[in-house]
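Request: Give me one sample?
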Amino acid sequence: MFDAIRHLDGVTPVDLYAEYPDFQIDIDREQERLLAHDVIVFQHPLYWYSTPAILKEWQDLVLEHGFAYGADGTALHGKVFFSALTAGGAEAAYCAEGRNHFTIRELLYPIEQTAMLCGMVYLPPFALFASRTAVEEGRVDRHIADWKRLIVALRDDRVDITRLSQRSLLNGAAAELTQEV
């Protein structure tokens, strides 16, 4: 997914582990990146129902009071935000009756609340379920094509954000909700 959008104009993929192997995150640089974009995506594997450690560290440092939230922290207001993730379990495992007892969106409530605190427009996640078997089952190419369509549609402002926010997942959304501009 990262490589599929790496060279798209107007899209800035950032590999935090490659840029900050020592976890010494450049707060000013990351805040400038946030200011330069209207759509913010956390792309990550779902680790123990949350984000990887470096992404949590990034949140703790970069989304600081006075910048991202608080009376003067309006830098992110109105920006669109969502997670694009891979999950090891099948989609059926992420529901009240499933092994994980919660939907992916419910498991991401802390991230959704963070976005809301920062005044961002939260969208549901884009997820690759059963990621461990996706290659063998031939699901990767279609998923990546759907991902790229979504990112291009968001970049080009060709989607209805209100309708997107009402979905449970963003998977398939670009094809269904793309608007004529």
About this structure: The domain at 2-6+24-168 is CATH 3.40.50.360 (Rossmann fold).
